Amino acid sequence: MLVGDFVDDYGIGHRIDTHTWWQRPSTRYEIVSWHPGAQYLIARNAASNGADAGRWTRIDWMVLPDMPPHAWAFCLSAWDAATRDAPPSPAPTR
Q1: What radius of gyration do the chain's Cα atoms show?
Q2: What's the pTM?
């Protein structure tokens, strides 16, 4: 479902294959593990990224039934973790 090219609702282009998630124009996440049953993946931020290079990212996704034209959505629940196994960044509280 996630593999391919798309433009998100902010107008940002993405290309996803089994090993890499590119967020255009130049941010790259090197996917190290997929967890489709739990709907997330773990990736290492590319050394060439302008921010958080070499850090770890968790990307969660969910299916959006009955919400055309959007079939699914994603969230970087962690984008600057020090280790692969670090928990996602806590959600902000109000």
Answers
A1: 13
A2: 0.86
